[in-house]
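Quick illustration, no need to memorize.
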Amino acid sequence: MTGRETGHEAQGAALADDAFAKVLTAQLPALRRYAMVLVGNRTMADDLVQDCIERALRQSGRLEQVPRIGAWMRSILHNLYIDELRRKRRQGGSVDLSDVENSTAVIAPHRDSAVMIDLDRALASLSLEHRQVLLLVGLEGLNYREVADELEIPVGTVMSRLARARERLREAMEPAANDVKKPL
């Protein structure tokens, strides 16, 4: 192999890295939304996304199908989240002030803060599986098959989790909605 061939190979690798970086960057808004659903805190979600990007860059050679990069990135993010939960469980619980500072209820305008507090509580009361399915179908717009493939569960399970999640969210929000509507 001559030095000239090596230079062309390096240039090709740099172009491939640039293309990968662009595709990766396009995933950031969706990753951030997914992280917020998992952790419920903007600062922690940003940290989780950053860790996810770092891992993805280190493991970019493992991505076999670029069109599936969204699912691949969410998988990495989810695994990092589970690792963090396990680490915290071993260390014991504590409350970080940053957990409260970015709460939707705290940063929302005053007139909407009660509704946002109720929504935060309602979402937090759902299981992780229900929050995941709600996000992937409702916010990310994935179809049931895509969600099933990504979470490695049957389509019927996706459908039932989504139905239960919507119902539990509705039930959790109804008392709050009724309280707001009642005259004082």
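Confidence is low (pLDDT under 50) at residues 1-5, 7-15, 104-110.
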